[in-house]
Amino acid sequence: xxxxxxxxxxxxxxxxxxxxxxxxxxxxxxxxxxxxxxxxxxxxxxxxxxxxxxxxxxxxxxxxxxxxxxxxxxxxxxxxxxxxxxxxxxxxxxxxxxxxxxxxxxxxxxxxxxxxxxxxxxxxxxxxxxxxxxxxxxxxxxxxxxxxxxxxxxxxxxxx
Length: 160
Ligand SMILES: [Zn+2]
Hints:
4 strands, alpha+beta, binds zinc ion
């Protein structure tokens, strides 16, 4: 019988971390969950994306601030496209209700989705309000295969 590979730190995971991981992998909060089909642990995902960001010389806080800035402008369009700058336009769609951060940090977010389009390259990226918080506070870009997963390099290219 082949034993599955378990990363060292996964073995000393706290019950709270395990619970969080369960919740992120479940499809309770959004279709597909936040981990998609990623087999890595949350810590591995966070670490890899954090490294990718620092290679791009941008902090998670800076990325989240720019996402928030674009969402704040786009929301004024009431679900129509709004010009952000000479090469970007964005649109916000909103659903009813709120979604809590699964990190249990008492943050909850409107179910809003921002779509950003670069008019020069045609690149399109999407994020939720929770996703802005995930990146800015938890350096969490979600697991590969999850609905809102954006590769850090693609997001940075879209935003700046
Ligand atoms: Zn949080």
